[in-house]
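User: Predict ABC transporter ATP-binding protein's structure from this.
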Amino acid sequence: MTSATPTGTAPHRAAVLRLHEVSHTYSGGRRRTTVLKNIDCTFERGTLTAVLGPSGSGKTTLLSLASGLDTPTRGTISFDGRDLAELGLGRYRNRHAATIFQQYNLLTYMTALQNVTTAMEITGAKPATGSRRSRALQILEDMGLDRATATRNVLRLSGGQQQRVAIARALACDVDILFADEPTGNLDEDTADGIVDTFRELAHAQGKCVIVVTHSQRLAAKADRVLTLRKGRLTERRDAEGDRGI
Ligand SMILES: Nc1ncnc2c1ncn2[C@@H]1O[C@H](COP(=O)(O)OP(=O)(O)OP(=O)(O)O)[C@@H](O)[C@H]1O
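Assistant:
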């Protein structure tokens, strides 16, 4: 097992998430597909990790397991030393982890603002000052969505705007671990760079553990740690040495 030691990042590193001998097999009828094979990996607070890999290599599956949406067929996943099965997946998802989904998963009968404030209520996120509504508006504005856009039904927003609402919703939850599945896929380069800088700031200034699945080498270049999933195995990129098993 390894953990990255990049330079220039936050001092408050501590293991927060551990995957121990995790394997995952999908079964449908007579077909069984083993997507993940014996993955052993630790993620720390204060780091931004990019997970790369060819399409269909299991990146979304890895994220689903690590974010408590599904349970592995073998192995254990623990948060702060506690097995997720013991902690409770619902509690883990509500209190400790937020996910930005590839398909956004916004509540389509609500405005952008309501999507964010509802998530804050569910997770119990309380702003240091002001109301949830004012904090939500601020985060949406930081994402480039003004008040008029924030108070529009999400179905009346563009794909890129919906993606930013999904990011704002996750940021507002103030959790320990932020997972994101292709969070910059629908965004222009400048907006995407801004989002990646936000992720870096969350990790380095606020000590969050940020794990991003991506096909973007541009995003990966800004991550503290780059993992690659291929044929069910996870390897870590070390600049001078190339990829190596973890
Ligand atoms: N619910 C499911 N039932 C059966 N097989 C599944 C299921 N979900 C995913 N798979 C299969 O598992 C493999 C990995 O899928 P996954 O979505 O995790 O890959 P990915 O690396 O995220 O792909 P992409 O980059 O295209 O989003 C694929 O072969 C996929 O068909």
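Residues 26, 28, 33, 35, 53, 55-61 surround adenosine-5'-triphosphate (CB under 6 Å).
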